[in-house]
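FAQ: What does a multi-protein file look like?

Like this. Sequence, then tokens, then the next protein.
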Amino acid sequence: MLLREFSTEDATAFYKMNSDPEVIRYTGDVPFASPNEARNFIANYSHYKEYGYGRWAICLKPSLQFIGFCGLKYHPKPEITEVGYRLFREHWGMGIATEASLAAIHHGFNELGLKAIYAHVDAKNPASARVLIKCGMQFVGHDTHEGAPIDLYKIEKPTHETT
């Protein structure tokens, strides 16, 4: 797989992915109304410039087909960085979310100098919790995010991280 910044060329696939009710079931997101709305979201996605990082498109090699996203997201309140991911359903259970999340965590620690990375999952989504555990994240506790119950996970940069 290849991880890269979003491109407006991803808009149609992004729209289709977010149109699947199972894909967004635990996210709290609503589907884009159209491919054009997805294109506008991507065109106005400011995290790369604003924070120096953001979510990445996940593309399969060698076709470079967009199959989802993964990456880091900064939350100004409560001033944390989280790792998150989303994939087309046909790519679930293949280890892609784990591999991409590990790459994002590694980038956050070794390229960005982050000391801790968080993740939250809907309390009713054990599959995503398993991905986080495979990435070495530890359960922190129960919380809410945008009014929904979530489980919070965290990983701290090892003091002896190797590249």
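And here is the next protein:
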Amino acid sequence: MSNSQEPKTGPLAGIRVIEMAGIGPVPLAGLILGELGAEVVRIDRLKAPASFLPLPPEADLDRMGRSIVRVDLKAEKGTAFMLDLCRGGDILLEGFRPGVMERLGLGPDACHAVNPGLVYGRMTGFGQDGPLAQRAGHDLTYLALSGVLSTIGPAGGKPVPPLNLVADYGGGTMFLIAGVLSALIERSHSGCGQVVDAAMVDGASKLASLFFSMRFAGLWQDGRGTNLLDSGAPFYDTYETSDGGFVAVACLEPQFFAEFAALLPLPEALAKAQYDRKLWPEMRSVIAERLKQKNRDEWAELFADTDACVAPVLGLGEAPEHPHNRARNTHVGEDGFVRPAAAPRFSRTPGAPAAASAATSERSHVATVLSGFGIRHASTRDLLDSGIIVI
């Protein structure tokens, strides 16, 4: 694991990011940008409420890889410090309800007055405008209103929360990152920053683009568990094995289905009728009965060197030990904490896993990082002595 006090590497080395502390999409964006080489300073309120997820510091990825500074945002000197930070920053990320940053004196107009080139990333559930802009919500709320939640779950069953991966992190974090990096590229031509309005309802909706197309074309019908990719097709679903484990079957293309059918095996009549929907109930029954005859790992071994698109359903504790994941170093670990490595990968400027927050919060290190934003060491000492900032 990299030492946070070594020079930053990665494709975003030299980019300075201000992350206003929050939960969900913004901290993950800060983590990813930091692991790609950006220098990230996380700003906590001076009297921040306790997290409702009491993670130990050595496993708190929402704080790793950043310099963490607590700031009295209600004091004029605290606001002045933040504007000085913005003056030397490239990207600001915030996830408050619309208007909160303006009330703190840190809205886009105030920040762009000191740094016209600042990319100002705003992450919300409903966006900066619209009748729901001021309402509270979480991943499941936004996913419900996007229409996506209605598609997830078994036939005849209720909609199932897909963790908080789709709206929070897919429609939120990833669209926020795409937005601020796009604005950063545009700034290289115009010299001007801009505001990025990233809303989780918008992002989750965009992720479902294919399904809107399929619905228009009559290839998708409302209702869970009745379509090609929502477990409606027997060759795109999960099945229980003899030991209570599960395997995922995803042989959509005919050539992959043929390989699956031969190895399972399926009766010839079913093997030759992959897309005959009238036979899907019988096909599902036969597949389920057959897969119940071996345990999960036996099926995994049988299908391992094939293109049948069958995989064991691994737990989070098992995934890092899978031979493919081990070969690619998909996960990293230190002191027993195993977690995903930096992604994606770069041929010349590789990123590095975020280091523990304790290392990034040492006073001398934070003062050095702040100096990169143009804040003098003497100013940092004065702010520390007066209690405006705490490290």
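Q: Is there any per-entry metadata?
A: Some entries carry free-text notes. For the entry above: The mean pLDDT is 94.
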